Design the sequence.
């Protein structure tokens, strides 16, 4: 569905990806406006059940991004996030949510261009997957 | 544990005595060594110099045949064949796509279940080997490992690559006195035996010189190539160095056979170029008979 | 009832060029809970900030959202402004509509809607913000320095000279470390002991420094500003107050053939000994492992001859407790020993030695009084081969890193050899020459050009003994990989610099991270080289990675400066954006069930146990508690907690939940 504009929430860490996105801005690089950021101190803070809340709230896609492994500002938060992602991916599959709707990535504070590319590629992918309508359908049945 | 035996071309030809002594010793140990059925040449140096696929396919065919026969391990006494088979198994286990392709080439689904062991590993695993020693081989020996028994370290994973000890320890069990010498793993000239015999004469000469200067009475080998260069090429060595070297070169299985009390003819000692004989033992250990030679 | 003030900045044209600011102001005013919504050209300017302050007072605002640039830019600015107007600074948030919106999208409806989304998100968040007070933790202004080598000595002196107390703990009987074993130092060829011993004496005499030599750290508890250290003072076997250091005991001791650690095994010492003449403190130690009395019950000769009756055979170790505010780890390094180079005969041939052993040969106070002599027969070597990179940069030997100092000290050794043996022939087999410091390249050039050291680029494959000489088989790669055989009298290996034995154990006591090679981990390799991830514990010297003396000294002074900064405050003030475990009235006490998953997840050991007792004094419940001095606010524990009993200020469950839902409130985006 080429004319559909997805809503994408990005869960990012303050020290790397948020700063990287700032750099994209200072460099005036342009990217698709469908992604909005929620700031966390560290990807380790991200409770992955919050991602399901985001889908329930109407998100069509999600980006989770933090510091590269070994570079976490708090040493190991991103390792925990990575492990949780692996488990969560299995859960998504089990629930029947297309795994491609969540993009897990590492963007450092120096990678302004990578953030722009990540946003554009993810927006493109979610656009092709179409809106995530499952929760809306459930609501129609009186659930949620 | 079913052990198969891959003799390879040399052991049926120029290194016949290695095979004879191995089988004689195996009989005493009560070990059966069935040959891998319909085995082919491992490819030796020629194959891996010409074509990577051929170099892998030849050993893969051998190992696949061994697996089919239910062999858990294959004993490969020739160090070069051992190297080829070991490397092939390693490469094919590391790369699934490669394994599938080579399996296709040899028309057999090679799985890599059969382990590849060299003569020293096999002998070291024999329990209570010392108990079988009737005539301790009380000589000073220089254990020569050559290139392929302990290298490349990452693939062979056996003994120390720079200063190996496994053959020395085995020889000590047989009553011998292994000496500490500097040319344990130095090159003998290898395949240049035919094309550049002069180089072999130089390199092998250095090996013998070091062994002799440190008082060795025999050089012990576990490889037909080593034996050929150090023994058969003796006249070339003597011509180039201008010195006479009487030191015999003996296969480890032959030493084991002698220590077990087997007659020398059964061990093929007469096939050597350099006669296997020793000066009378200078200070025999009381209570133990002195070593007699060929 | 929330009364949020929203302030939209134009940022000149940076925001207003692509975002319809007027529309955002109007829409924001309609968000429930927003009591004030205005725009201004430059919010961060003085008049801009004044707008915020006035609105707080006039409209009784309970929260502020400034929609402008990134919070990484101006969050402190606006928080300070709020504080000055009487609003708790943590009730102020910034909505990033510049870097994340106006600068990266085209002018249009979609951009304006996104800016509005962002504002709405932060308004929802700030409604859930709590007023927070900065955390204050007291500071004990005494520093603990572990290790009395040059780095430890420098750090101790710097901290002591800035007026603070220092406790310096050294494992060996004397301070000085490896630098005291060196003969001369590169690139100046200064006599090592001459420049070191004055510092050692200064440490011993400094009013602010308490020196515990022949001592080790037993345990360390507590946190930054508030550590409790237990130090084991090992029994020397004498009353230090009575001992005058006369040395009579050492002269008379009958057990004299113990390999001397200070002489790297090349010299001998008695069982009661001072490691070297300039030792600080200059008091001996009884080596109980070799002393005849401790082994057989006989002798005690030293006791008999001591003029002040200072010997105490039954003496026991003593544990000293100390309260300190900061720790500097300066425990140094070692060089690799042992049977890891059989092809070089290291450990087999007496005349194959390592770099530290060569230093002792060259040293005027060494076992050969400064003459270069072979350990085997005492002859002066005519040909010496130095092998650089003996173990370093070699994955096959398990050490892939470069040990940094060997190129320089090998050049130094070769030069010293030539200075002492004028007709000597030194060869150096090298892979590369790393001489990156000040005057370093010139130093190596000097070795090659003035002192005639023969540098051969190639590796050595084997060293073996033949007719009393050492045959070195190598290759000269600059001459087309030509094989080279040199008959040497002495071979010196520049073996790899490695972590001290016991480094791992100490790191675990301190809760400091270390790498695969047991070198201690700095907090950030570029920007925080003297700090560790454990607040209050700093690093100096080669315990962090192999390095030379100038770098060790610089790093030590850096660590001392950090300690000084820490001690310059009477209290430590920290941002309160940390984790907090739920607490409720008895009998519940807390929703925490005491699984302590959070504790295992925390990289800073900031989670402790708290016991709640009933009226009968019995422990009713053990729950988690966050140490406000240690928590760094990452929130990893929060995501672990299965009962949601631990939450983080500033990014709480309520806050992020509100943000996510607010972000998705609007229907499908257009544009």
Sequence:
């Amino acid at each position: 569905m080429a004319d559909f504009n997805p809503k994408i929430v990005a869960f990012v860490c303050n020290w790397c990806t948020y700063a990287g996105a700032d750099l994209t801005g200072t460099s005036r690089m342009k990217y698709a406006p469908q992604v909005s950021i929620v700031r966390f101190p560290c990807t380790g803070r991200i409770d992955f059940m919050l991602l399901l809340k985001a889908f329930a709230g109407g998100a069509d896609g999600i980006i989770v991004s933090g510091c590269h492994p070994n570079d976490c500002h708090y040493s190991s938060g991103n390792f925990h996030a990575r492990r949780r992602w692996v488990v969560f991916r299995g859960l998504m599959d089990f629930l029947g949510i297309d795994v491609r709707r969540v993009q897990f990535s590492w963007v450092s504070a120096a990678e302004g261009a990578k953030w722009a590319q990540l946003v554009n590629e993810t927006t493109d992918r979610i656009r092709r997957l179409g809106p995530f309508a499952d929760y809306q359908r459930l609501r129609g049945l009186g659930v949620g | 544990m079913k052990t198969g035996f891959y003799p390879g071309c040399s052991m049926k030809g120029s290194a016949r005595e290695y095979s004879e002594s191995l089988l004689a010793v195996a009989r005493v140990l009560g070990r059966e060594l069935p040959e891998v059925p319909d085995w082919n040449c491992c490819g030796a140096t020629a194959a891996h110099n010409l074509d990577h696929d051929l170099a892998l396919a030849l050993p893969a065919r051998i190992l696949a045949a061994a697996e089919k026969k239910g062999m858990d391990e294959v004993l490969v006494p020739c160090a070069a064949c051992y190297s080829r088979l070991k490397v092939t198994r390693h490469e094919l286990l590391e790369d699934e796509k490669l394994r599938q392709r080579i399996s296709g080439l040899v028309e057999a689904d090679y799985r890599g279940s059969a382990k590849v062991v060299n003569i020293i590993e096999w002998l070291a695993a024999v329990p209570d080997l010392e108990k079988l020693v009737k005539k301790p081989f009380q000589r000073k020996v220089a254990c020569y490992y050559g290139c392929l028994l302990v290298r490349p370290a990452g693939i062979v994973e056996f003994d120390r690559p720079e200063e190996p000890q496994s053959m020395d320890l085995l020889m000590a069990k047989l009553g011998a006195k292994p000496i500490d010498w500097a040319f344990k793993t130095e090159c003998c000239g290898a395949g240049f035996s035919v094309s550049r015999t002069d180089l072999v004469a130089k390199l092998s000469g250095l090996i013998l010189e070091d062994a002799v200067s440190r008082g060795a009475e025999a050089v012990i080998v576990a490889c037909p190539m080593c034996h050929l260069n150090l023994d058969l090429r003796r006249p070339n060595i003597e011509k180039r160095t201008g010195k006479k070297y009487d030191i015999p070169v003996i296969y480890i299985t032959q030493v084991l056979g002698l220590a077990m009390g087997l007659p020398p003819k059964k061990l093929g000692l007469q096939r050597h170029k350099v006669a296997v004989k020793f000066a009378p033992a200078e200070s025999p250990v009381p209570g133990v008979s002195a070593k007699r030679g060929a | 009832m929330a009364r949020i003030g929203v302030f939209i900045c134009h940022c000149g044209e940076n925001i207003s060029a692509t975002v319809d600011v007027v529309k955002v102001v109007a829409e924001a005013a309609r968000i429930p809970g927003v009591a004030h919504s205005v725009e201004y050209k430059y919010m961060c300017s003085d008049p801009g900030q004044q707008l915020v302050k006035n609105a707080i007072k006039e409209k009784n605002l309970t929260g502020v959202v400034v929609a402008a640039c990134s919070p990484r830019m101006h969050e402190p600015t606006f928080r300070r402004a709020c504080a000055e107007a009487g609003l708790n600074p943590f009730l102020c948030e910034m909505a990033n509509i510049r870097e994340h919106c106006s600068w990266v999208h085209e002018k249009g409806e979609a951009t304006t809607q996104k800016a509005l989304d962002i504002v709405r998100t932060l308004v929802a968040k700030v409604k859930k913000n709590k007023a927070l007070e900065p955390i204050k933790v007291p500071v004990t202004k005494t520093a603990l320095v572990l290790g009395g080598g040059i780095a430890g000595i420098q750090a101790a002196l710097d901290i002591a000279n800035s007026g603070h107390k220092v406790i310096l703990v050294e494992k060996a009987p004397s301070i000085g470390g490896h630098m005291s074993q060196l003969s001369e130092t590169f690139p100046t060829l200064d006599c090592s002991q001459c420049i070191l011993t004055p510092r050692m004496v200064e440490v011993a005499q400094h009013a602010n420094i308490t020196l515990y030599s022949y001592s080790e750290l037993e345990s360390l508890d507590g946190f930054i500003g508030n550590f409790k250290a237990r130090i084991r003072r090992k029994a020397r076997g004498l009353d230090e107050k009575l001992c005058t250091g006369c040395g009579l005991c050492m002269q008379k001791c009958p057990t004299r053939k113990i390999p001397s650690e200070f002489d790297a095994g090349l010299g001998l010492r008695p069982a009661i000994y001072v490691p070297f003449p300039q030792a600080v403190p200059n008091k001996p130690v009884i080596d109980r492992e070799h002393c005849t009395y401790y082994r057989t019950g006989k002798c005690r000769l030293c006791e008999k001859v001591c003029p002040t009756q200072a010997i105490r055979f039954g003496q026991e170790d003593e544990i000293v407790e100390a309260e300190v505010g900061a720790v500097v780890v300066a425990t140094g390094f070692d060089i690799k020993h042992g049977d890891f180079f059989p092809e070089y005969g290291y450990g087999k041939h007496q005349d194959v030695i390592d770099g530290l052993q060569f230093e002792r040969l060259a040293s005027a106070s060494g076992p050969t009084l400064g003459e270069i002599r072979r350990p085997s027969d005492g002859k002066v070597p005519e040909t010496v081969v130095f092998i650089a990179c003996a173990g370093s940069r070699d994955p096959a030997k398990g050490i892939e890193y470069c040990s940094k100092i060997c190129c320089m000290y090998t050049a130094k050794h070769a030069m010293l050899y030539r200075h002492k043996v004028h007709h000597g022939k030194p060869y150096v087999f090298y892979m590369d020459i790393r001489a990156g410091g000040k005057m370093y390249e010139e130093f190596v050039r000097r070795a090659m050009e003035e002192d005639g050291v023969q540098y051969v680029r190639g590796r050595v494959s084997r060293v073996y003994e033949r007719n009393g000489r050492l045959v070195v088989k190598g290759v000269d790669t600059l001459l087309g990989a030509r094989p080279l055989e040199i008959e040497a009298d002495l071979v010196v290996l520049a073996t790899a610099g490695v972590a001290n034995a016991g480094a791992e154990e100490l790191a675990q006591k301190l809760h400091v991270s270390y790498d695969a090679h047991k070198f201690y981990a700095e907090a950030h390799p570029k920007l925080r080289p003297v700090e560790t991830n454990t607040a209050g514990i700093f690093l100096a010297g080669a315990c962090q990675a192999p390095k030379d003396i100038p770098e060790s000294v610089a790093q030590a002074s850096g660590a001392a400066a950090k300690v000084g900064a820490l001690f310059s405050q009477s209290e430590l003030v920290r941002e309160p954006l940390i984790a907090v475990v739920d607490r409720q009235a008895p009998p519940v006490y807390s929703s925490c069930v005491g699984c302590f998953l959070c504790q295992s997840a925390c990289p800073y050991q900031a989670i402790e146990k708290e016991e709640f007792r009933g009226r009968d004094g019995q422990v009713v419940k053990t729950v988690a508690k966050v140490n406000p001095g240690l928590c760094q606010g990452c929130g990893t524990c929060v995501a672990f907690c299965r009962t949601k009993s631990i939450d983080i200020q500033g990014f709480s469950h309520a806050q992020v939940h509100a943000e996510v839902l607010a972000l998705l409130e609007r229907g499908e985006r257009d544009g």
Remarks:
- The first helix of chain B runs from residue 8 to 12.
- Residues 168 and 178 of chain B are 6 Å apart (CA to CA).
- Residues 282-294 of chain B have pLDDT under 50 and may be disordered.
- The radius of gyration of chain B is 19 Å.
